[in-house]
Amino acid sequence: MAAIVAVLESGCAYAPSINVLGSYFPDWLFCIVAGVVLTVVIYLILKRFQAGLLLGPSAVVYPTLVTFLSLAVWLMLFQH
Does the model's pTM come out above 0.70? Predict the structure, then answer.
């Protein structure tokens, strides 16, 4: 029983957070901010080339793009 508990608690050894000026913020917070910023950049590029209408319903496309980019940033930067 002790071995099972030790294996399960080994995942709790590292807190996924970043120290910013003495305060610790979770990794996912930075990933969501990066996903939103990258989505806004993609939106502006599509608007510049007038290709925004080719994507489909904006209420589905942009939240999905935020989610995808947030997860991609997390995989690229915070893989431990």
Answer: yes
